[in-house]
């Protein structure tokens, strides 16, 4: 089989709708793979949609029909093959495909591959290929009328079209309403037979392993063929009877290495080649990289309910997770290098799992390949989010087709830990007044409980499946019951303060989070507001959450006063975001293994916006990033409130034991010890220990000026008896030293007074700067070393500037 990409020479033009005069109907060079926004940007016809209020100024794009065209040649060799096809790996979204002016396909699903068999229509010589897209907004509106409106959190009927839900806007996302050939397109020509699908499964067995391949064939063969499987220098083959539409083969390997999540071992991967032969001629070939591991989620009832415990190679894994959204609202702009940057940041934050949220996309192959290589477990939602979805045609068939395409595409990955039916729809059906509003209409239950599990059982029985997130296994309890399975915790952000996370001891947390603005450099690049204020026009456009700024203020007030200065406001909200999530993670981890993991909302952003992300839309790390890094460190010590008083919890998520003297101290803000005790602790690998603080350490005589400290081998946890705003925190005072280091610039901060949450906002020094740590609390006289990368020539004065060298102290003293 030959395959030739058709990516160059495309044009795009507006074919109908409210097109501004500045754009007109002229054909523009088109980016393929890409979306129409990229062509308009490249031609200078539109401003950057991510800046200021350009989002609303460009909403017309989603109301326009766009037509892509390409002239191309079919070679004599391609025409000589028995079969020819045009293959689109992704069309966004509703379109008519025409060849030489004649319709050859109607498509209506962004999330699937469209293969158009053309046969005699595609002869040698010149041809014109046209993809005529319909306005996604108008189509979705029409389908909502035809199928009946369903409950959803936002006005646009994203549930009525098989297109990324967040493309219509979300509480962190810009509405772009894209159209385009967003994934690769190619011309394929073949004779005799080809792979219609190929599925590879690697299974460890003792010291060895087995690789099994199952293929579906498109064939005109009148003679036997051979299916060949090759890996690790070994080969196996099976005979394929003439005319057979399926085949399988198995390869046994005597010795293999196990694949492990990051932090639990190495990630050896094995290259697998699958060939279809007719004698000495290779008809088709497929390549996969696999890893050998066992994986399941333990949901068997126990004394406390039903756990949701990930087990890999027999080893229980504490999940340190983060939710993932598309990394750019113009999806094709995310290439392998960008995936690599973002996922390496995830590893640097001590994460071991990334959940691909159901309102986005099935990510590119590069995403899952990098997860395999880095040891990041991948949890993939099927693409249903926060809404009731019609089960009628034409959506029903499209859902099955996209599920089959994507399960087949990603199921071989060692990193794939879970396929989940939807995001929050089971919860919504129970609690969000859907039952009354649906009035008997379908809402998606068939997909989550019947269709999707059947597809997974048929195509990837080795991959675990859950009907939704949150979900309570067993079917007896509410889907968001914290005694069973996974939960989402949003009351804290929406209505309550973040210390109330400590009221919950869930079995597994799949979503929770707190908002904060992007880094200062990202904010100033995106907004031209003068003056820039929390409520200036651009800030409001780039705050998508309902009453978002009010919730930011309400969530801060118990801890710090709301600053009047904009840069202080920015720091306060970023710090409170980090403190909220960090405190929650410390609490959840302190209850391991009862609580078996936590997945923070969210890792990344798709544009510059105030959101729950740890990494902003320009790829810069917010203080929240360091909160993840600290709370998910391999070894931690925290102080936690319990019913009977304060306790120190020592967590050891390493393969080595950990023992020593746990030093417990109560001291004043001046650093003077007021009481202390020492307790010998000995922890097995992957375990924790809880030690009650003695009364003399746990009780403050002056809450406003004292703290408790627990420390083992230099790993420290602190407990402040009073909120910062009610405390005697002194004015920030520190000495700074700067010196060149092999891995960047070493910045040493030495505290003259107690400093809470020392953080360097290094993007203010240079847009490309990054720092290795943050949120470091220092006692008087203590020092901390920070490594700054991406900028040269740092000076003490630049680093010590009060807008760069930040601490909680700056928000207390005035």
TrEMBL record:
Documented EC number(s): 3.2.1.25
Protein name: beta-mannosidase
Keyword Hydrolase set for record: yes
One GO process term, biological-process aspect: glycoprotein catabolic process
Catalyzed reaction equations: Hydrolysis of terminal, non-reducing beta-D-mannose residues in beta-D-mannosides
Domain Beta-mannosidase-like galactose-binding: 10-183
Family, as annotated: Belongs to the glycosyl hydrolase 2 family.
Name of the top EC class for this enzyme: hydrolase
Record-annotated membrane-spanning stretches: none
Residue ranges constituting the Glycoside hydrolase family 2 immunoglobulin-like beta-sandwich domain according to the UniProt record: 209-293
UniProt-listed InterPro entries: Beta-gal/glucu_dom_sf, Beta-mannosidase-like_N2, Beta-mannosidase_GH2, Galactose-bd-like_sf, GH, Ig-like_fold, Ig-like_GH2
Organism: Protaetiibacter intestinalis
Single GO MF annotation: beta-mannosidase activity
Keywords: Glycosidase, Hydrolase
């Amino acid at each position: 089989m030959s395959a030739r990409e058709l990516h160059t020479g495309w044009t795009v033009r507006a074919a109908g709708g409210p097109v501004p005069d500045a754009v007109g109907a002229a054909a523009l060079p088109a980016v393929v793979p890409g979306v129409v926004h990229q062509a308009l940007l490249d031609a200078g016809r539109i401003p950057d949609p991510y800046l200021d209020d350009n989002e609303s100024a460009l909403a017309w794009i989603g109301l326009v029909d766009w037509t892509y065209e390409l002239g191309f040649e079919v070679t004599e060799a391609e025409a000589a093959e028995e079969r020819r096809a045009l293959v689109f790996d992704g069309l966004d979204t509703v379109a008519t495909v025409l060849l030489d002016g004649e319709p050859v396909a109607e498509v209506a699903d962004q999330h699937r591959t469209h293969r158009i068999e053309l046969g005699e229509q595609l002869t040698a010589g010149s041809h014109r290929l046209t993809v005529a897209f319909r306005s996604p907004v108008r189509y979705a509106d029409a389908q909502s009328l035809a199928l009946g409106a369903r409950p959803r959190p936002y006005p646009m009927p994203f549930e009525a079209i098989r297109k990324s839900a967040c493309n219509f806007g979300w509480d962190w996302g810009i509405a772009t309403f894209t159209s385009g050939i967003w994934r690769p397109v190619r011309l394929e020509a073949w004779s005799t037979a080809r792979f219609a699908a190929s599925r590879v499964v690697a299974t460890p067995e003792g010291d060895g392993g087995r690789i099994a391949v199952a293929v579906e064939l498109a064939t005109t063969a009148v003679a036997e063929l051979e299916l060949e499987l090759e890996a690790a220098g070994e080969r196996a083959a099976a005979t394929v009877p003439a005319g057979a539409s399926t085949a399988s083969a198995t390869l046994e390997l005597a010795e293999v290495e196990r694949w492990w999540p990051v932090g639990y071992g190495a990630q050896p991967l094995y290259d697998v080649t699958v060939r279809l032969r007719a004698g000495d001629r290779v008809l088709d070939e497929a390549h996969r990289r696999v890893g050998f591991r066992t994986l399941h989620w333990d949901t068997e009832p126990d004394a406390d309910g039903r756990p949701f415990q990930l087990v890999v190679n027999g080893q229980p894994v504490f999940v340190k997770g983060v939710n993932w959204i598309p990394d750019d609202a113009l999806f094709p702009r995310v290439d392998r290098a960008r995936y690599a940057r973002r996922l390496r940041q995830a590893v640097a934050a001590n994460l071991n799992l990334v959940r691909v949220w159901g309102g986005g996309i099935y990510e590119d192959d590069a995403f899952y390949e990098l997860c395999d290589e880095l040891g990041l477990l991948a949890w993939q939602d099927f693409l249903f989010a926060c809404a009731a979805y019609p089960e009628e045609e034409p959506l029903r068939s499209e859902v099955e087709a996209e599920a089959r395409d994507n399960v087949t595409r990603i199921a071989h990955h060692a990193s794939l830990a879970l396929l989940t039916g939807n995001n929050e729809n089971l919860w919504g059906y129970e609690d969000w007044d859907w039952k009354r509003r649906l009035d008997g209409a379908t809402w998606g239950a068939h997909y989550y409980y019947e269709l999707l599990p059947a597809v997974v059982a048929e195509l990837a029985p080795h991959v675990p499946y859950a009907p939704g997130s949150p979900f309570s296994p067993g079917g007896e309890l509410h889907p968001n019951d914290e005694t069973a399975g996974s939960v989402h915790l949003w009351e804290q952000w929406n209505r309550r303060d973040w210390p109330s996370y400590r009221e919950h001891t869930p079995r597994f947390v799949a979503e929770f989070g707190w908002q904060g603005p992007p880094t200062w450099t990202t904010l100033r690049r995106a907004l031209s507001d003068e003056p820039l204020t929390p409520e200036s026009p651009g800030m409001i456009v780039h705050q998508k959450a309902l009453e978002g700024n009010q919730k930011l203020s309400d969530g801060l007030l118990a801890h710090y006063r709301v600053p009047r200065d904009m840069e202080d406001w920015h720091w306060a909200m970023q710090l409170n975001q980090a403190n909220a999530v960090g405190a929650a993670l410390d609490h959840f981890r302190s209850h391991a293994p009862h609580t078996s993991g936590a997945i923070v909302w969210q890792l990344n952003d798709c544009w510059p916006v105030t959101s729950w992300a740890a990494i902003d839309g320009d790829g810069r790390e917010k203080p929240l990033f360091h909160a993840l890094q600290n709370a998910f460190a391999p070894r931690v010590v925290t102080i936690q409130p319990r019913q009977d008083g304060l306790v120190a919890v020592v967590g050891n998520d390493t393969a080595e034991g950990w023992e020593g003297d746990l030093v417990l101290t109560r001291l004043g803000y001046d650093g003077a010890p007021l009481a202390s005790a020492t307790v010998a602790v000995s922890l097995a690998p992957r375990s924790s220990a809880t030690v009650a603080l003695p009364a003399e350490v746990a009780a403050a005589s002056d809450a406003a000026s004292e703290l408790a400290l627990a420390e083992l081998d230099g790993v420290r946890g602190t407990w402040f008896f009073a909120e910062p705003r009610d405390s005697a925190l002194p004015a920030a005072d520190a000495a700074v030293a700067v010196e060149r280091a092999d891995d960047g610039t070493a910045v040493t901060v030495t505290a003259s007074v107690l400093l809470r949450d020392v953080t360097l906002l290094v993007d203010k020094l240079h847009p490309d700067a990054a720092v290795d740590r943050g949120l470091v609390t220092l006692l008087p006289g203590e020092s901390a070393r920070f490594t700054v990368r991406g900028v040269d020539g740092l000076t003490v004065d630049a680093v010590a500037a009060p807008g760069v060298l930040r601490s909680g102290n700056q928000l207390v003293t005035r």
